[in-house]
Amino acid sequence: MIGQNKRLYFGIIISFIIMIFSLVSTIFNDEDSAEWYTVQKNLEPSFENYLGSSGLGQDILFLLSDSILHSLLIGVTVALFSTLIGVILGILSGFIGGVTDKLLIFLMDAFIAIPSLPILILLASLFKGDFSLLMVCIVLIIFNWPWPARQARAMSLSIKENDFIFIALFSGQSILNIIFTEIFPHIKNWAMANFINTVLVAISIETGLAVIGLSSLEDTTLGTMIYWSLKYQAILLEQWFWIGSPVIATILMFFSLFCISTGLSKLND
Amino acid sequence: MEIIKYLIYRFIAFIGVIIFGVTIVFFIPRFSPTDPVENYLNSILSGQGGGIDGAAIEEMRTNLTILFGLEEDYFTQYIKFITKFISSGDFGPSFSAYPTTVNSLISQALPWTLGLLLVSTIAAWLIGNFIGLIVGFKEGKIYSSLLEFIAMLVYPIPYYILGLLLLIFFGYILNIFPMNATFMYKTFSIDALIRLVMISAMPALSIIIISIGWWVISMKAMSVNTKKEEFVLFAKLMGIKEKKIMFSYVLPNSLLPQITVLALQFGTMFNGAFLTEILFSYPGLGNLMYTAVLAGDYNLIIGTVTLSIIAVATATFFVDFVYPFIDPRIKYK
C-alpha cells in the first residue's frame, strides 16, 4: 500500500514540476516562442539561452515550455470532455436501458474498435495545413469517450439495483439529479484514474500525428517540435538539445502520468 | 445457449462495426472542405507550369471526377462503394501509382507489417513473461524491484519516441543499423536476408522493448496473485523445489490471461507500429498510408485506413470470441 502511494506521490511531484515548467515561457517570454529567427541560429546553451537555440532560431527553453503547455492542454481538454461525456452517457445508457442502451453500446463498441490514428491521418491529409489543434481534440474526444462510458455503464447497472436509487426516484428526483448526487460519488475515483489515462493517450496520439508533420503546425506541441528538428536534420547536425529536450520531456511526462494512473487505480482497490 | 446467442450478437456487431468504420472513412472526405479533384488537379498543374489551356483543364476535371467516382450524388456513390467493398474488397486503382491497384500495393506492404509485428510481438511476449514471472516470484528482491522499475519507465513511452532514441544511438552515434530502411532486393539471397534483418532491427526493437515493459508489469501482477494460491502453498509444504514451483505451478496458471491479451495486443499494435514504420521508412502499411497521404492518393488512403480498421475490429472480435472458451467464469449478456 505504501509502495503504491509512493508511486502516486512521485508521479504527482514530477507532473507538478512539468506543469510549472510549462508556464515558464508564458510568464517570462513576451514573444511567440515558435516564431523563427527571433534569436541567433544553433546557439550552444549559455546564460542567455539556457538550452541554446534551434536551427530555426528559436530559444529552445521557451519553445520547449510552450510545447509542453500545448501538449498538456490537449491532453487535459480531451480527457476532461471524454470523461465527462463518457460517464454521463454511460450512466444514462445503463439507467435508461432499452433501445437507447443498445444503440449506445453499439457506438461504444464501434469507436473502441475503430483506430483513431488512421482517421486522424485521413482528416489531416484532407485539411492540409488547416488542421487545428481544436479539431485534433474533437476527434480524440469522439474516440475516447467510449472507454469511460463502458465502465460507467457497468457501474450504473450494478448501482441501479441499490435501494437508495429507487427511493430517490420515487421521491421525485430527476434522473440527471440522481446521476450527479447519488451515482457520481461512487465512480469519481475510477473516473479520476481514467482521466489521467486519457490525458496520456491523447498526448501520445497528438504527438505521433505531429511527429510525422500531420498535426497543426501553427501551435507548437512536443510532437511538432520533434517534427521540425527532424525535418531540419537535427540528428545529423548533432543539435541534441533541440531534438533531445522534447524527447526527454515526453518520456518524463508519460512516466509521471503512468505513475499517477497506476497509483490511483491501486488506491481504488 | 447463452454463449451461442452472445457469439452471434458479437459477430453481427463485428460486421456492423466494420461497415460503420468504412462509412466514416467514406463520408469524411466528402464532407471536408477540400475537394480531392481540385487538390489533384493543382498538384498536376503546378508540376506542369502554365502551359495548359482552360478547356483542357476542364476536361481533366471531368475525367478526374469520373475516375474518382465522384460524378453521382453521395447516396449512389455510397451504395456503389459499399457493394463493391463487400463483394470484392476492391478499392480501385491507386492515383499516384496509376494503373496499379490499391489492393496490389497493400498486398506488397502487408507482409512487411505482419512480419515485423509477428516477430516482435512474440519475442516481446516470451521475454516479457519470463522476466515478469521472475519479478513476481522473487518479489522484494532488489533486482526484482529494479526490473519492475525499468518496465514501468519504458512501458508508457510511445513506440516512435523510443524509435527515435534507437535511431540516434544505434543509427547515428554507434552506426550499427542503417538509418534508412530502403530495400531494393527483388529475389532471395544472403545479402537480401542480411539487409532485411538490418533494416527491421530498430523498428522491431522499439516495439519489443516497450511491449516487454507491458508483459513484465502484467505478468508480475498475475504471478504475485498465483503465488498466494493454496495449491502453491501446498506444493511448498510438500517440499517441491522452488524452481519447479515457479515453472510448473505458477507459470501455467498465470499464463492463460496473457495469451488472450496477446491477440488484442496484436490488433492495437497494428496502429502503434504505423508511426514506427514511418519514422524508419520501413516499407510496410504505415509507410504506404503515409506516402498515400503525402501524394493525396485518395483511393490508397481509404484502402489502408479501412484495412487498419478491419485489423483492430478483428482482433477485438477474436478476443471476445475466444474468451468464453478460455474463461468459463465470464457471464454473457
Describe it:
The complex is a heterodimer of chains A (269) and B (333). With 269 residues, chain A is mostly helical. Chain A is built from eleven helices and no strands. The mean pLDDT of chain A is 83. Chain B has a domain at 105-297: MetI-like (MetI-like fold, Orthogonal Bundle), CATH 1.10.3720.10. Chain B contains twelve helices and no strands. Chain B has helices spanning 2-31, 36-48, 54-67, 74-88, 102-137, 142-154, 159-173, 190-227, 230-237, 242-279, 285-295, 298-326. In chain B, helix 1 (2-31) packs across helix 4 (74-88) and helix 5 (102-137) crosses helix 8. In chain B, 36% of the residues are buried. The model of chain B has no long low-confidence stretch (mean pLDDT 80).
Largest sheet of chain B: none
* CATH-level-2 architecture of the domain at 105-297 in chain B: Orthogonal Bundle
Termini Cα gap of chain B = 11 Å
* Radius of gyration of chain A, whole Å: 22 Å
Number of helices of chain B: 12
Strand content of chain A: under 5%
Shape assignment of chain B: globular
Oligomerization state: heterodimer
Which CATH C-level class of the domain at 105-297 in chain B is it?
Answer: Mainly Alpha
Portion of residues within helices of chain B: over 70%
Order of helices and strands of chain B: HHHHHHHHHHHH
pLDDT averaged residue by residue of chain A? 83
pLDDT < 50 runs, ≥5 residues of chain A: none
The biggest sheet of chain A amounts to: none
* Helical segment count of chain A: 11
